[in-house]
């Protein structure tokens, strides 16, 4: 089943809204015996085709974050690269397999985090952001280092907080050990950021990517 057919099939089941459809189904199934459920299931368009459609869409959606990451970076290139600047490598897929950063040119290295920050408890996203910042800050180069984000208010607010390195690096003991070894007096995020804020530029790319500002709150990159 292709994506277009899958979406159409699933819409037949969801109707005007999945929540209300499910609530209606739940109410109608109360009191039924097992042998009575198939007929009512089909009356609600809860068919085998609808299940196949949902599975098809779920499988395809696993690639969406990678697609957004790749497309977002490609759009940014025309705005961020200077005249005569040459790309040395580009890493568009999930993670930077065998590549240090998302892009390196003859003038800069950069990482992209396409996150719609909400300002709440976003510890997993903060952990990833901090790891990228450290990688850029510690990279030995004379090139410009950039961490590109969708809106810089929440990332900068995070970098100025007193969240402990032990918390931020809780699932990355290698990074925590590196920081403890090389910065024994640094215990919280803002202390490390103060040491390196002049080495890594936080770049707001939301003006170049207005489409991403409309997406749900998810982390990409």
Structure commentary:
This protein has 221 residues and is α/β, with parallel strands linked by helices. The chain has two domains: 3-61, no CATH class; 64-214, no CATH class. Helices cover 48% and strands 11% of the residues. It has helices at 3-14, 18-29, 37-43, 48-61, 64-80, 123-138, 153-159, 165-168, 173-182, 189-196; strands spanning 87-90, 103-105, 108-113, 144-149, 200-204. The chain has a five-stranded mixed sheet with strand order 1-2-3-4-5, with helices on one face. The longest helix has 17 residues, at 64-80. The mean pLDDT is 90.
Spell out the blueprint of helices and strands.
Blueprint: H1 3-14, H2 18-29, H3 37-43, H4 48-61, H5 64-80, E1 87-90, E2 103-105, E3 108-113, H6 123-138, E4 144-149, H7 153-159, H8 165-168, H9 173-182, H10 189-196, E5 200-204
Parallel strand pairs: 3-4, 4-5
Antiparallel strand pairs: 1-2, 2-3
Helix pairs in contact: 1-4
